[in-house]
Amino acid sequence: MKPLDEQIAKLFKIVDAATDGPWDEDDGFVAVGGFGLEEQPYGFQATDYADWTQRDHDAEFIAQFNPATVRKLLAVVKAAKEMREDMDHVEGSDPAVVASFDAALAKLDGLAAGEDKAGE
Predict the structure, then answer these.
(1) Cα within 13 Å of Cα(28), Cβ side
(2) CA 35 to CA 26: how far, in whole Å?
(3) pLDDT, tens digit (0-9, with 9 covering 90-100), for 68-103
(4) What is the rounded CA–CA span in Å between residue 49 and residue 33?
(5) Among residues 36, 33, 61, which one has the least CA distance to residue 47?
(6) Which of 12, 43, 85, 96 has a C-alpha 20 to 30 A away from that of 57?
(7) How far is CA 15 from CA 3, 80, 115, 118, 120, in A?
C-alpha cells in the first residue's frame, strides 16, 4: 500500500471511531456529543457527555485532524481538480480517464454539499 493510501485508511478509521456530533465550540473548548461547560459559582463544570467511552476516540480525531493534516488533504483535492482542468487542454486525453476524474470530482462536490458520506 502506498503512503497516501495508508494515511487515508488511517484517517478513515479515526473518523469512523469519532462521535458524529453535534460538535461545537464553547468559550474556547470543544463541545462534542452533548458535552459542554456550565458556569458554576465555583468555576466551570463539565455537563453530561453523550458517551464517555468516546472521549479517547474524539481526542484522537482532534489530534490527527490538525491543520497540517487538513492542509495536506486539501492540497490533494486541489491537485486533482487542477489535473482535471489541465486535461481539457491536452490533445488526446483518454475519455475514460476524463470520465473517471469527472465522476470523482462530482462525488467530492456532493460530499461538500452534504449529500453523502465519504468512503462508502
Answers:
(1) 1
(2) 9
(3) 888 888 888 888 888 888 888 888 888 898 898 889
(4) 6
(5) 36
(6) 43
(7) 18, 22, 17, 10, 13
Q: Which three cell numbers stand for residue 100?
A: 473517471
Domain boundaries, the chain: 1-65, 66-120
- Does 65 score more than 60 pLDDT? yes
Residue 18 near residue 60, CB atoms below 8 Å: yes
Residue among 88, 92, 89, 11 at smallest CA distance from 105: 88
0.70 surpassed by pTM? no
Nearest to 27 by CA among 1, 7, 51, 47: 47
- Please enumerate in sequence order all residues whose Cβ is within 8 A of that of 7, keeping only pairs 6 or more positions apart, or say none: none
SS3 per-residue string spanning the chain: CCHHHHHHHHHHHHHHHCCCCCEEEECCEEEECCCCEEEECCEEEECCCCCHHHHHHHHHHHHHCCHHHHHHHHHHHHHHHHHHHHHCCCCCCCHHHHHHHHHHHHHHHHHHCCCCCCCC
